[in-house]
Amino acid sequence: MYVAYGWPKLLSIDSSSPQPVVHVSVHSGWLLLVTAAQVQVWSAEQHTTKLGQFKRSLISREGSNVCAIWSAKDNTVAVLTSESYLHFYRIQVSEKQLLSSIHNNLELPLVSVILSISVDAALYSRTVTVSCIAGDEFSIILGLSNNYLRIVSWDGEVLGVSDVLDEFVSASDTSVLEASTVPVSPSGLVHQSSFPLSPRLPIIPSPSRETRVHKPSSLSQLQVSVELQLLVAIFTEGVVALCTINEKGPKRCSEISPERWVGVVDASCASIAHDQQILAVGTRRGTLELFNLADGASFLRTISLIDWGYSLEDTGPVSQIAWTPDNRAFAVGWRNRGLSVWSVSGCRLMCTIRQGSLSNSQSPAPGVDNERSMSEPMVKGVALLAWGRYAYELFAVERGSTLRFFEFRFAKSPASQSIAATTDAWQLMHGADRVVLVQSDESGDSKNHHLIIPQPYIWDNWPVVHVSGNEDGSYLAIAGGKGLLLHDLQMKKFRVFGDVLQERQVHCVGVIWVGKIVVICNYREKSNWFELCLYPRYHLDEASLLCRKQLPGKPIAMDVWQDYILVTCSPFDIYVFKVHIQGELSSRNTATVQLFTVRELSIMSTRKFPVAVHFVPNSGPWREGFKINPWDSPRVGPSIYHFSESPGEAAMQPTRCVILRTDGELSLLDLDHGNERRILTGVERFWLGDYQAKEETDLLKEDPCWAYGPQGMQVWYFPSNANIIQSPSVKQLEPELDFDREVYPLGISSAAGIIVGITQRLTLSGGIPLPCFEPTPQAQPILPFILWHLLQRNKSEEALELSKLSEGLPHFSHSLEKLLFIVFDAAMSSQSINRRRGRNIAVKRTVFLLLQQVCNLIHNFPEYLDVLVSVARKSDSRHWPELFAVAGNSTTLFEECLEKGLYRTASCYILVIEKLEGSIISQHCAVRLLKATLEVSQYELAGELVRFLLRGGRESEAQEEEVVRYENGLVSSLLELSISKPGFGDEQNLAVVKTALEEHVSLLMRTLELRKLVAFINATHFDFNAFLRTERGTAARLEDFASALLTAGQKLFIRELESFQELEFLLSHMRTVGFQEWIALLATLLRQVEVLVETFQGDKRVWLAYKHTLQVTSVQYTCMDCPYLHVMSFLYCLIVRNCYGGDLVFSVVTLYAIKMSIKCPTSRVHPCLRSSMRISLLLLNMKCQRQIYHINQSLFCTHIVLFHHLFQALVLM
Length: 1213
Hints:
Oligomer: single chain
Strand content: 25-35%
CATH topology of the domain at 411-554: Methylamine Dehydrogenase, Chain H
Number of helices: 35
Helix content: 25-40%
Distance between the termini: 62 Å
C-alpha cells in the first residue's frame, strides 16, 4: 500500500534550452531522462541530482530522440530517433565526485554518457519506419510500421526480422477481433476464489457498422516480460495481441509466437505486472482494464475516475501506466489532466485532481501559465511516469511542458508488514527518511505522526527498508540500508550501534520483536549467508549479542507468536524456532538466551512464492478432527525436531499458519503434516485477530481472519470442522465492511475495536503554490461483525459477555447500530427472495430468529432505544412492522424514552407511531412530549414538535380544501386555522398546543427569563405580537419595576453582544405592540435614552412611575446591590434635560440623583467615583446659586461625561 505525503518537488531539467522529455526510467539508483537532443543521468536515491549528460544537435540527419530503452546488464541505453536511427550510449562511472554541502561523507560519483554506436534501424529503407521499441537484457525488439518485428542485439547487430504479427493479423478476420472484445469470464477463478467475481465489465463499444473493428495496420507500443515469457503488442487501431517468447528473451524470430487477442479495442497503452501476472491496458475512454494473464487474459476489473465525477472530457485517454517494483500498486496518467495511484484491488490511493474542479473547461489552455496550472500538478496531462528504486518516489513529466518535472514522495506499508511489523497501539508506514505512525486514541479518533529519522543515521544508511514495532507499541526497530535504529516512543530517544564498523556489517533483510528482544535477519556479505541475530533493546553492540543462528537460505517472510519465530526461506522452506531465556533480561542482569529449532518443513509446490506468513494461535479447537487428505496437499519433506519439550510445552506450539502468496492466494498450512488448504484468492493484505491473554479468548474460540481485496474488507473464521476446511464455502465469509474505495485498511486495533485505514487529502497553503498531500486516517468498527458471527452460531451468552467487555469502546453505540442494521437488512432481503420463490412460513421464522437474538442482545444496554430508532430511520418504512414486531411496541418504547428523559429519541419514535398506529396516537404523544420539552427548555425540539402537530391539522383540512398559507407566524396560524371537518382529536390537540405555548410564554415573562424567551420565539416561530395583544399577554405585567430591573440584569450577561441583540429583539416587539412598562425596562437595560424620551412623552404616567421608582428604591438599595439604579439616575437626568430643558432644572435633578446615590456606605463605593460625585455636587451647588455663571460650559459638560463613564465602570465591575 502506498500513500503520498508532503509537497511535490519540482525538478529543474534545463531551463537554458528547454526540450520535450521523451523517456524517464529508473535503474540501479540512476534516473535516465532523455529529451529530444539530450541523454541525462540523475541520481535517483537520497538526492535527485544530475550526474552527467550527452548533448547532440537537433538539426542532424538522424532526427530528434523519440523513445529509449535501458539495459541494466552493461549500463547501455538505446535511443530511437525520429528518422529510425538507433543510438547506443554507454554509461561509465567517473572518478570525479559531486560533494554535498550538507554532509561531508555524502559523495555522489559523476558519470560519463558516451555515444558508442549509431545504427540505421530501418536498414536504409525510408518506406518503412520504426514505430516503437522494447526489449530485455538480451536483445531489443523494434516494431515496424508494416507490423514486422526486427530483433537487434545490444551491440547493434541485426539478428533477424519476423512477420509473425503480420501473418497473425492477416489470419484473424474482423469477426475474430470483434469476438475478442467480449470479456472472457475467468472460469479458473470461480472454484479457486471465495470472493464473488466483480460484476463490473469493461465498457467496450459493441461492434456495429459505425464502430466495426478494422484490421491492425501498424504497431504503436511493445511490452516485454521475460519472467512471463510474454510480448504484448498494441496496434494503432487500439487492439492488443499477446505473444509468447523464449524464457531468455527472443534472440531469433522463430522464438516469437502470437497466441490471442485481448478483449479491448481502444487501447492506448499497456503495462505488465510480472509478480501479479496482470496486464493493465489503458483505453481511449479514460479507463483502465485489468486482465488476468494466469487465466488466459480473462477480464478482472475496470479502474476509472468516473465514480468520482470525472468524465473523458475532464481527463482524456490514458497516456501512461507504471507499476511499482513490487507490483502492489500502479500509477495512471491521463493525456489531458491528472495523475492517480491505485491498488490492484481498485482502491484509489492518490490523485492530483482537486475535488470540485470537475470540468476540464476550468483547466488552463495549452501554453497558458496561470495560477491554476501552478497550484495543480499534472494539470495539462501526463507525458511520462517512473517509480523510484524503492517506490518511495514517483517521477512524472507534465505533458506539453518542458520544465514541469515532478517528484512525488510516498510512504508504504508492504503486505509482509501487516503481519509482524504492526502493533495494537500503532499502524506503521515508512517513507525513505521517516516512519508514519497511525494511532487510535481512547476517544476513537485516529491520528498520524511523522517520526523523522535522525540525519546522521539516514545520511549513511538511506533509505528506511524495514520497520517493526513491539507488542505494546513502546519501541520501534528501524532498519536502513545498513545498521539498525531503536526508538523509544515514550522517552522519544533513539539508540544506535556505538561502533560504526559494527553498524556497517548489519544488512537487515527482516526484523521482528520477541518481548524485549529485537530479532534481526542479517546478511553477511563476506560469508554470503543469512543469520538471525538477537539483541536486547537496551543495548546495540556485538558484546551484547544474545544469540546468533545461521539460516540455510534467503528469508522471504517472518512472523512471531509468543516465544516462537517462524522463518520462510527460498524457495519454500519453513523453520520454526523457540527462544529460551534463562534469567532476567535487563540492563543490570545478564540472561542466557538460546534459539532452538523445533520444526523444519520443505514445501514442494507449483504455487507462487509467499510474501507473508502468520502463526495461527492455538486458542481454538484446532486439533479436533483435522485429518490428512491428499487433496491439494503439496509434497512435504521430513519434519525435524531438535528440541525436546514437555507435553505441556508441545501443546502450546502453534500448529497452523496462514500464507499469502504473490498472486493473492490465501491458504492455511498444517505445520504438523504439511497439509495446505486454500481459503481465498485475490487477497492483497490480511490480518488475524489476536486475542491471546485477553478475556475475549474464551468467548470467541475461533480466530477471525480479516482479508482485503477487490470485494473490500471481509471476515473469514477458521472453523474446527475439518470438512469445512477441506471444502471452503462462501458462506463462511461475513458481510463486507463498507470501506470507501479511497480508504485503504492498514490494520486491526483490538484495543479500540476498529480497523484503521488511510486516505489522501489535499491542502493548499498561502505561501506555497503546490498542494500538500496529507495521509488522513479513518476507522471502521469490527465489533458488529464478531457479534454477528457469534449470534449466527447461537452463542448469545458469549456475544453478551463480549459486548459488556466492549461497552467502554468509543464506537460501541455505532457498532450495535451496525449489527442491527446488517441483520435487519439481510432479513428483509431474504424475506423478499422467499416471497418471490413461494417458500413457506417456516423459512420466514428461521430468517427472523437471528433478528430476534440481536434485539435481545441490544436490549441489555442503555443505547437500545437510540439504536433501534436510528436503524428504523435508515430503513424503508414499509419494513417497520417487521422490525418493531420483533423489537417491541413503538408506543411502549416511546413511553420508556419519555420516562428516561430521552426527548430527542422519543421524537423519532413519533414518526414510527404515526406509521404503525395512526396519526391520532402520534399527535397525542407529540403533545405530551411538547409539554415535557418546554419544561426543560429544549426549544429546538419543541419547534419541531409544533410543526409536526400543525402538519397534522393542515393535512386534515387538506382533505376538504386547499391549505391556506398564513404570514403571521406559526402560533397565529394555530389560532386562526379553521378546519371544516377535522379528524378526531385534531382540534383538541391544536387547542392544547395553543394553551401550552401561551402558558410557557407567560411563565417566562413573569420570571423574567428573557434569554429563554427569545430562544423560544426563534425556535418555535411563536407569534409574540399576537400573544401580547391577547388578554393573557396584557396580563404579563411587571409588579415591581426595580426588582424586575435587578432580576433581569442578573440573569442577562449584559456585557455580551448576544444579550444586547436579544434585548433589542424583545424591545422591537414591545414597541410594536406598545407595551410601555416593558419598553421602559428594556430601554433602561439597553441605555437607550431616545426610546425612554419617546415613551415618556407619549405617556406621562409612565414618566411619573419611573421617577417615583427611582426616588423610592434609591434609598432601599445600595449601589452594589442594584447597579442599574445609577444607570437610571443618569438616564433620569438626561431625560429631564431633554424633556423640560434648562440648565437650572437639569442641575437640580442631577444634584438630587447624586445625593441619592452618595448615601451608599463608603465601603461599597469606589473612591474615584465618590470623589467624582463630590466634585459634581460642589459644581452643581455653585451653579444652582447662580454664583459661577462665568464657568466654562464645556468644562462642566466634560465633567458630566466623565461622571457617566465612571458609573458605567462601576456597573461593569
